[in-house]
Amino acid sequence: MQYVQKCPVDSRIIDTTFPALACPVCRTSFCMFPCVESLAAKNKKCPTCKEFEMRKLSEILQSVRYLAKLEELKAKGDVTNMVYGKLKREYEERNRDAIQRIYG
Ligand SMILES: [Zn+2]
Ligand SMILES: [Zn+2]
User: What is the 21 CA–ligand 1 centroid distance (Å)?
Assistant: First the structure.
């Protein structure tokens, strides 16, 4: 049986259809938007372990947001393929670095 995890903030079932982020201390998963985002913005600690400062996940949130924005611009034809490719690599690298630093 698969273990079902719910976001402790809004009880949404965590699956692969939307981005989620786990607390590196207690491994509880939260919906990236809006739950992690709003906890980070309010400078709150993880509501489960009350140890991890959620704003430390801001870097990951930001690179994910940039990537989504970039896809939007690409869909509208507002960026050239070259610029798109360059920015995508840059944001993905930033995202990987942040993940490595936080979870690595
Ligand atoms: Zn949530
Ligand atoms: Zn936690």
Answer: 10
CA distance 5 to 80: 40
Four-CA torsion 96, 88, 68, 43, nearest 10 degrees = 40
19 CA distance to ligand 2 middle (Å) = 17
pTM above 0.85, yes or no: yes
Q: Where are the domains of the chain?
A: 20-103
pLDDT tens across the length of the chain (104 residues): 557 899 999 999 999 899 999 999 999 999 999 999 999 999 999 999 999 999 999 999 999 999 999 999 999 999 999 999 999 999 999 999 999 999 99
CA of 10 to the centre of ligand 1 (A): 5
Which ligand has the minimum distance to the alpha carbon of residue 49? 2
